[in-house]
Amino acid sequence: MKTNKTLLSTAVAFSLLSTSGIVNAAGFQLAEYSATGLGRAYAGEAAMADNASSQWRNPAMLTYLEGTQVSVGAIYVNPNIDVDGTSTYIDGPHNASSHDFAHDAIIPNFYLSHQYNDKLVVGFALGTNYGMETDLGKDFAAANFGNQASVFSMEANLNAAYKLNEQLSIGGGIRYIMADGSFGAVMPPQMNIIDQNLPGTTLKYMEGDDTAWGWQVGTAWQINDNNRIGFAYKSEVDLTLEGYAQGVGFDLTGNTKKDGSMELALPATAELASFHQLNDQLAVHASINWTNWSSFKELVADFPGEASNLIKEENWDDNYRFAVGTTYQLDQKWTLRSGVAYDTSAVSEEHRTATIPETDRLWLSVGAGYEWSKNLTLDAGFTYIFAKDASMHEGRTPGADFMTDPADFGGAFEGEVTGNVWLIGVQANYKF
Q1: In sequence order, what are the residues at sequence separation of 6 or more whose Cβ sits closer than 8 angstroms to the Cβ of residue 287?
Q2: Closest-CA residue to 230 (of 90, 377, 50, 103)
C-alpha cells in the first residue's frame, strides 16, 4: 500500500501540474477565452464589453450588449518547452533531456447573449479554463518521475445580468464543468543495469473523469461616460477524477487494472479591472487577477476498500496577474489592440520540482478588429509569451522506505526548464 501511495504521488503531480503552468497561465490554468481579448493580453477583461464573449470573465458586462449577439472562435497555442538536466543513479549521472514536449492545442469557444429588455440580459457560454498535454517520451532519463500527462476540460455557463441603474450592473451564472485526465510514469533507460527488460516498463498509469458544478458573480460600475470598473469572482470547483490505475507501482502486472480516484479542486479566481476612454480614438484598460492556488496544499489518493492517504505535500502560493492594454479606433472599420501582462509563479523556489516547472511569464500581445458590416465584426489576436527559466530538483521523498520511492527507479533529477509560447486566435461576432 505504501508503494502505491508514493508512486501515485509523483504521477498525479506530474499529470495535473506539469508544463501547462509554463505554457499559458499559472498551474494548469488557461487564460485563452477569446481572440478579442488575446489581442490586448486580456487586460481589463472584467470591464470590457466588446461582444458576447464578455460574459466569460464578468457576467455583469452582458448589460452592455444590445439585441442578440453570437461570438464564435478558436485560439491556436504553440508551446515550445524544453527540459535539460541530469538524473543520477547508482551507476552515475545520465543526461535527462526532452525538447518540445508540451503539445500544441486548439482552444475553441462559443458565446450567445440575448437582451430580454432594457434591464435584463441572459447569456450562454462554452469554453475552458483548464487543460494541458505533455509527453516527455520513454527515453527521458527522469521518466520515473513521470513521462506523459493530459488534462482536458470543457465548461458551459448559463448567465444573467441586471442593470440596477445607469451606473451599476450585477450578474451571475451557473457553471458546469466536464473534465478528464491521465498520467503515466515508466522505468527510464538507466534501469537496464539491473535488468535489460526494465526500461519502458510502466511504473504507473492512471486516468479518470468527472463532472461538477460551480458559480460566478460580477458587477460593473459606470463611473461616467468614459470610465468604468468591473469586478468578477469564480467559485472553487471540486472534482473527483474516477477511473483506473495500471502498472507495477500499483502491484499490478500486464494489463491488470485497479479502480482509483483523486480529489481535485479547481481554485477560486477573482479579477478587478478598469476601462478608460481617453478620447474619441484611444482607450486604456488594466486588470489584476488573483487565483487561490494556496488552497492546493496536498494530494490524497483513494482506492476502494482502503483508507484515504496523504500522498504528497504541494504547498502552492496564490498567483497574481497584472495586465495593461490599449484599444485604438483607427477608423470606422478598423480597431487596433495591444497589451502587456505579467503572470507570477504559483510555486516558490523551495517547492519547484521536475513535475512542477512553474515560473513567471511575460505576455506581449497585438490584435485587430474589422467591421465587415453593421452586423458582422471579425477579430484576430497574437501573443508571444516569454517564460522565465526555472531550475528544479526531484529527489527522494523524506521518510520513504527503499523501493517505495520514484528515485529508487532511476535516481534523483536536477534540471532546468526553458521555453516560450506563441498564440494566435480568430473570432467572428454577429449581431441580430
Answers
A1: 42, 43, 44, 45, 46, 47, 271, 272, 273, 274, 321, 322, 323
A2: 50
C-alpha cell at 127: 469554453
C-alpha 3/C-alpha 158 separation (Å) is 44
Residue 171 pLDDT more than 60? Answer: yes
pLDDT at site 25: 60
Here the cell at position 363 is 505576455
For residue 5, what are the contacts with CB-CB under 8 A and spacing of at least 6? 301, 309, 311
| Other beta carbons within 10 Å of 273 | 26
E-only strand ranges, 267-318: 269-277, 282-291, 298-302, 309-313
pLDDT in tens, 86-130: 999 999 999 999 888 888 888 999 999 999 999 999 999 999 888
429, 35 contact by CB (below 8 A): no
Determine how many CB atoms are found less than 10 A away from the CB of residue 145: 28
Cβ count near 2 (within 10 Å): 11
Q: Whole-prediction pTM value?
A: 0.88
Cα–Cα distance, 421 to 83 (Å, whole number): 15
Residue range 309-353, pLDDT digits in tens:
555 567 788 889 999 999 999 999 999 999 999 999 888 777 776
Domain count, the chain: 1
Where in the sequence is the domain holding 48, given as residue range(s)? 2-431
Read off the CATH number of the domain in which 381 is found.
2.40.160.60
Whether residue 200 contacts residue 186, with contact meaning beta carbons closer than 8 Å, is answered with yes
Q: Nearest-CA neighbor of 29 among 42, 39, 46?
A: 42
Query: Hey, how many other C-beta atoms are within 10 angstroms of the C-beta on 253?
Result: 10
Comparing CA positions, the residue from 354, 353, 343, 325 lying closest to residue 387 is 343
- For 106, the 3-state DSSP assignment is strand
Distance CA 177, CA 215 (A): 10
Contacts of 362 (CB under 8 A, 6+ apart): 340, 341, 342, 343, 385, 386, 388
